[in-house]
Structure formats: structure tokens, C-alpha cells
# Entry
Amino acid sequence: MARYTGPKSRISRRFGEAIYGPDKVLEKRNFAPGQHGNNRRKKSSEYGLMLAEKQKAKYTYGVLEKQFRILFDKASRKEGVTGEVLLQMLESRLDNVVYRLGIAPTRAAARQLVNHKHITVDGKVVGIPSYSVTPGQVVAVREKSKSLEVVENSLAGFNHSKYPWIEWDENLKGGKLLHLPERDSIPENIKEQMIVELYSK
# Structure
């Protein structure tokens, strides 16, 4: 189960964005990491900017290079705008859907819940974070895991209406993926067209 396990604040500081959610370190030190981070005024090349967008997408969704490349290849073979299809595929990953439902406070926590078999899809336990949820499927917390403190704390006060492509069921402690999200409803600050151009080189 490969994933990035390094310092998360460092990644957020590199991009100047809270990639992994609210970050006190980023708030205090909103400049690039490293000895000369506060003085760095280097202008990135076009390739550097495209690479940075790909790296940002990878870190945001917790996907490593090989997985990301496979997803891009699949997206490029599907109908539609490749960049948007890529983001839709990332959004439909099980760990991301668990996060969007508010069951976990971060994608990393969602991934852990899936790995530890606390999550079901259509009533069956699924322990694969990269599992692709399809429209119509119901993602929920396993019955004996509903009282987990991390789940209850995360759901407390969570606004389930902010993602229109998901329908929440309070009794089930889960929700249905109604449809794949349109690009303008995906809140992530990612320039997906630059990723497409990078892989097209």
C-alpha cells in the first residue's frame, strides 16, 4: 500500500496551498521550504509549471507516479475532455468518496478507514482505497464501525449538501454517488490541462 509518508507541511509550503487540509505551519511560514525558501524568487519554466501541477494533483489525492500515469492513460482513452475525465476518476476513488462524504477528516484518514475494512460499498466490505466507485453505488460505514470516534468527530457539523454529486443518508452513515462531478463543482485548485500537456510532450 504505497503512499507518500514524508512531511506534509513541507509539501503544502512548496505549493503555497493547504494540500492536506488546514495547516498551522503553512499559516506561520507561507514560503517555500529550505534554507533559502523565504528569499526564493526563481521563475519557473513552462515545463516546471506543468510538472508542479501534476505533483500537486498527486499529493492532493494521495496517488503515486505509477498509479497516476495509469489513471491518465485510462482517462485519455475515454470520451470527453481528458483533464476533466482524469479529475473525475480521482474523485471517484473510494478513499476520496469517503472523504467527500465527511466520514473522515482527511483523505489520509479516509484511506486508513478503507484499509482497516471499516467501509462498505453496496453493503460489502471493500479494503482497497483505489477502488473506483461508480454512479449509483452506496458507500457507508460498516455497522460495527459506526461508533468509531474518528467517524463521529468528522461527521459532527459536516455540511453534506456542499457536494451535489453525493446524496447523504444519516441512518446509513453513508451516501450514494449520484453522478460523476462536473469540473466546476470540483473544489481542488488544479490546472488539469497543464497535466495533459505535460504527458503529451
